Backbone:
């Protein structure tokens, strides 16, 4: 089954007829000067899904890359994230509309949209989370965001959104995930509830490139360590979001569909889990 994955394989989003490409392209710390080129290289390499955020300050460049790609808008999947609450639902909503306009000006009389809008972080507290979620619910109702979700949310954060509007559960939860930080409790909760799990920092920002276990598995499959980590992520049923501004790496990171990691080697990688201590950005708080 897993060997049949391709660069455009998708997962279904809960309570909808929508799907999301399983391979995404992250653009955190992709400077505005190079981001458009990196996205263009990614499209040429077969990626059809870009993950940006207000915080990354490159939404306009992602939008330009999508427009100039020659691809149909409906064949590209674009995610962004609201950074913070602006003080009222209306103000947060307007801030999100600004992002939509940067990413998709709309064409042929159609309004622009993003495919997925996430709350970037739960850390600002309950009222901020509710304000941002209410803004996203409005965006969703108006078709400016086809799907809405969260990032870095634990179980209690997600449960706190129940009853606020028509979308529950959120379509997606984007969290840090790689062999050293598997966050099994929140992943199980999401998968049981149909919430798509997205893996950020799937390459551990290359910090584990010399890990003995990873290197030996990479040698066995004649692949790069980054390719093993991306393939691992996909075989865990996570949407994976590797980032690179290096053209050769952008291409090699998408070249992961001609092999499959065996169940035994998946288990070896699973055994590297260090829990919260393995996080390089942040692990979620579940209660
Ligand atoms: N929601 C959140 O809070 C959150 C947090 C973090 C990340 N994210 C998302 O997840 C995406 C990925 O995470 P990330 O950017 O933190 O880290 P990552 O994808 O794990 O690693 C990116 C780093 O690895 C390097 N790299 C990429 N491919 C490589 C390869 N084949 N060999 C060696 N090095 C390689 C890149 O360098 P070069 O660019 O120089 O090639 C870059 O320094 C982000 O871009 C963002 O979209 C979300």
Residues:
């Amino acid at each position: 089954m897993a060997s049949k994955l391709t660069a455009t394989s998708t997962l279904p989003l809960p309570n909808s007829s929508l799907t999301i490409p399983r391979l995404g392209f992250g653009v955190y710390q992709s400077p505005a000067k190079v981001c458009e080129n990196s996205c263009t290289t990614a499209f040429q390499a077969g990626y059809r899904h870009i993950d940006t955020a207000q915080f990354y300050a490159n939404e306009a460049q992602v939008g330009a890359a999508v427009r100039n790609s020659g691809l149909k808008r409906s064949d590209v999947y674009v995610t962004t994230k609201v950074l913070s609450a602006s003080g009222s639902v209306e103000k947060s909503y307007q801030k999100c509309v600004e992002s939509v306009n940067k990413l998709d000006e709309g064409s042929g009389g159609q309004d622009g949209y993003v495919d997925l809008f996430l709350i970037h972080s739960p850390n600002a507290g309950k009222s901020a989370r509710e304000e941002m979620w209410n803004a996203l619910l409005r965006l969703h109702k108006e078709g400016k965001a086809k799907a809405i979700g969260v990032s870095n949310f634990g179980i209690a954060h997600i449960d706190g959104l129940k009853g606020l509007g028509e979308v529950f559960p959120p379509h997606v939860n984007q969290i840090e995930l790689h062999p050293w930080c598997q966050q099994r409790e929140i992943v199980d909760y999401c998968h049981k509830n149909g919430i798509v799990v997205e893996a950020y920092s799937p390459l551990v920002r290359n910090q584990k490139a010399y890990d003995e276990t990873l290197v030996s598995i990479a040698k066995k499959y004649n692949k790069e360590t980054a390719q093993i980590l991306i393939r691992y992520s996909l075989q865990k049923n996570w949407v994976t979001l590797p980032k690179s501004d290096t053209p050769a790496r952008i291409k090699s990171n998408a070249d992961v569909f001609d092999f499959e990691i065996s169940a035994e080697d998946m288990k070896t990688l699973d055994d590297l889990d260090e829990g919260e201590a393995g996080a390089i950005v942040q692990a979620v708080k579940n209660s």
Notes: The chain has a mean pLDDT of 96. The beta strands are 10-12, 19-21, 25-26, 49-51, 77-82, 114-119, 145-151, 172-176, 196-200, 239-240. The chain has one domain: 9-206+237-255. The longest strand covers residues 145-151.
